[in-house]
Records
---
Amino acid sequence: MPQFKPAGWPSVIPRIVTRDLTGLARFLRDVFDAKGEVRSGAPTEIRIGDSIVLISDGGGVREAMPAFLYVYVQDADETYRRAIAAGAESIETPADTPYGDRRAMVRDTWANVWQIATYRGNP
């Protein structure tokens, strides 16, 4: 069967179009310890944990398009603090949910909303 996607990539990959590609990439590295370098002429591949997020400037033909993403991290409280320190606006402070996640929510300066969670098990 022919390969229909790059090896190791999932079938669904979020993509964010922004007017500040370098700034958003820096935010993701600072807050989520993301890996990946900004590329020109192609979407920038950012890895957060075992996931991929593509970010690009739209090549001048696409308008900015923010995302709403749920991200599991080792420590939701610490990641939330890093997001606020990096300029994000708090939507929800860290709190325990009835389904076992400790979760917070922020909006970055590019209008992306990030739900930041650590699974703690069923209550």
Note: The chain is about 20% helix and 35% strand.
---
Amino acid sequence: MRYPALLAFADILPDIDRFDTIIDARSEGEFALDHLPGAINCPVLNDEERVRVGTLYKQVGSFEAKKLGAVLVARNIARHLETQFADKGRDWKPLVYCWRGGNRSGSLAHILAKIGWPAIQLDGGYKAYRAHVSAALEAPPDLQWRVVCGTTGSGKSRLLETLDGIGAQVLDLERLAAHRGSVLGHLPHEPQPSQKRFETLIWDLLRHFDASRPVFVESESKKVGNLRVPDAVMERMRAAPCIALTLSRPNRVRLLMEDYEHFARDPCALNTQLDHLVQLHGRARIDAWHALANSGAMPELVDQLLVEHYDPAYLRSIDRNFAQVGQASVLELDDIGPQDFLQAARTLHEG
């Protein structure tokens, strides 16, 4: 094969995990929105430089813009060679891509190949990759889904985390979305990824799952915070067998107090989120919950939220959205310690 070789994503995919390095040559802003799994960002034009070149193109012309772009690209590639790639040996196998597989990745791949590395350039770039992901999520693989159901605070997320820790196959949508999936689910200091990034994370997990083994997932709604679960994945989940996780209400309150400790430290932030429930519960009820939060009566507030908001909402939606919940196998937790979740996880994983 002559290098740099220009290959389509369909040709690269079977061997994509064998590349030593996947290089995203786009700007840092483009990379942050989404990128190929495992890619590192080595911009040949950063965000500011892209603006400079684009402005020059519009205001002066393509020749002057290309001349400036060449200077910036050459400078940036030289820096990457002196830093990121300085320790790479003769047999290093990089895959390079940019937005559409054009000048940015082409320039970098050309120089890498001239040095002697077997560089591959992704034909069509990120745009071609993104088209593949979108199509794959419209027809996800036929997997043995097992849906963990249960009221808020019953420990579904902790059970999935424990299952993952003992080697089970888990699609933890809340972890991927950086959100706990309710009006209070925003995680402090951890913004949600973009929708495209969320879908990349889902696709990358699905493609590695073994279809002969079960895949555990939580009974999510269509949206996790601001992110939407792909429709076809949602349909497969909703048609799957269910596991009903049960935990006493006092223990559910304890678990939620642990998981939402940040709200106990910042009742103003909690009250801001509770205001989103005014249309459902009325101003008087929300004001009463505000008073509990402000006085530090968090266990009482959590208990009321379970009884008056979360449990009724769960019961209204679960039967309607998950076809096999009526035949769910019951898994009861006695307490919320690590050993309780480990025992429950082993029961599912080994059963």
Note: Residues 18 and 93 are 8 Å apart (CA to CA).
